[in-house]
UniProtKB/TrEMBL annotation:
GO molecular function: ATP binding; protein serine/threonine kinase activity
Any Pfam family: PK_Tyr_Ser-Thr
Highest taxon of source: Eukaryota
InterPro entries in UniProt: Kinase-like_dom_sf, Prot_kinase_dom, Ser-Thr/Tyr_kinase_cat_dom, Ser/Thr_kinase_AS, Ser/Thr_Kinases-Pseudokinases
Compositional bias per record (Basic and acidic residues), positions renumbered to this chain: 160-172
Name of the featured protein: Protein kinase domain-containing protein
PROSITE patterns recorded: PROTEIN_KINASE_DOM, PROTEIN_KINASE_ST
Length: 206
């Protein structure tokens, strides 16, 4: 997306306009590749009539696309925010609404998707910034990438700490279990010794 949105002598800015999970392919090594440029447009050719809807998938579309206003690369940023939300929520965005209801909710009422359970503060702040009403206030992808990488680093560090805590708890449990088994063996040994002592006493007294 950084490449698509970066102008050069070889190409203009390219706006995808339909960024969603179905248009992101995953390589076996985990690399993501954006595909399906059927409705993409060059930045200089994105002006559209204000009397008709822009093409795209309503669940991922920015408010300006619903209004038929000229679009910029920031509609892809809005869609990326929804894509991030879907990764965290693990469900389709606005799945309970029809296309027209989504248009009314997002485009007219200014509604946004709720924060997913367990979503880190940093990622949620990034998602909300991608959903800002004014396109120029949304971050570009060259600012989104380091923010995502930082959040991934924080999540990895937290997961590593949690794994270490789990390992320490498991070691403590194993140590306690071993101590309990040793105590039980010691108690059993003392019991046998007492039984033997009583047997010898009885034999002598008898």
């Amino acid at each position: 997306m950084i490449y698509l949105h970066a102008p050069s002598d070889a190409k203009p800015v390219v706006v995808h306009r339909d960024l969603k999970p179905q248009n992101v392919l995953l390589h076996e090594d985990g690399r993501a590749k954006v595909c399906d440029f059927g409705i993409s447009k060059a930045f200089t050719a994105t002006a559209a009539s204000s009397t008709r809807l822009q093409p795209g998938t309503p669940s991922y579309m920015a408010p300006e696309q619903f209004e038929g206003r000229p679009v910029t690369d920031r509609v892809d940023v809005f869609a990326f925010g929804v894509l991030l939300w879907e990764c965290l929520a693990r469900r389709q965005p606005w799945r309970e609404l029809s296309a027209m209801q989504i248009i009314f909710a997002v485009g007219i009422q200014g509604e946004r998707l709720p924060r997913p359970s367990g979503c880190p503060d940093g990622l949620w702040a990034l998602i909300e910034s991608c959903w800002r009403e004014a396109p120029e206030q949304r971050p570009p992808f060259n600012a989104i990438l380091p923010a995502v990488e930082e959040e991934i680093g924080l999540v990895d560090a937290a997961e590593q700490q949690e794994r270490q805590r789990q390992q320490e708890r498991q070691q403590q449990q194993e140590k306690q279990q071993q101590q309990q088994e040793e105590d039980e063996q010691r108690a059993a040994g003392l019991g046998r010794q007492m039984e033997l002592a009583m047997y010898i006493h009885d034999m002598r007294c008898g």
